[in-house]
Amino acid sequence: MFLFNVRVYGLLINDKEQILLSDEEHEGFYITKFPGGGLEYGEGLIECLKREFLEECNMEIDAPEHLYTTDFFEKSAFNESQIISVYYLVKPASDLNVRISDLPFDFDKSDKVRQAFRWKNLAELDPYDVTFLTEKKAIEALKLKLKKAF
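== NUDIX domain-containing protein ==
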């Protein structure tokens, strides 16, 4: 039996032209990605994205615009499943209500969940800023979209 792991992520850009990054520790691995996570059975992609932003960022989002979907094989770093990731550009529908740091992996010591958020200037955003190939491809898609917009 082949397992698929569908992941849904949101790229949130603020009015200072910065993008929100999530630094996490998961099973001893330190990763940087965009906010989001795994699709649950019976859930739609947008529903998942909204739930993940509420869970991770205590924030409601609106107007998701599809940016990129994985178009190559990627095996999970954590199990034997195949990763399928879907990326959306998102707009805030409420205030972002998490601690923001200037430093990577600046975890709150009192939190059980090892996750921290930071803004990165879009002009400085590079595929090397994120961990997994799917996020690197999403950055490339974002840069291409921004280039076409100007």
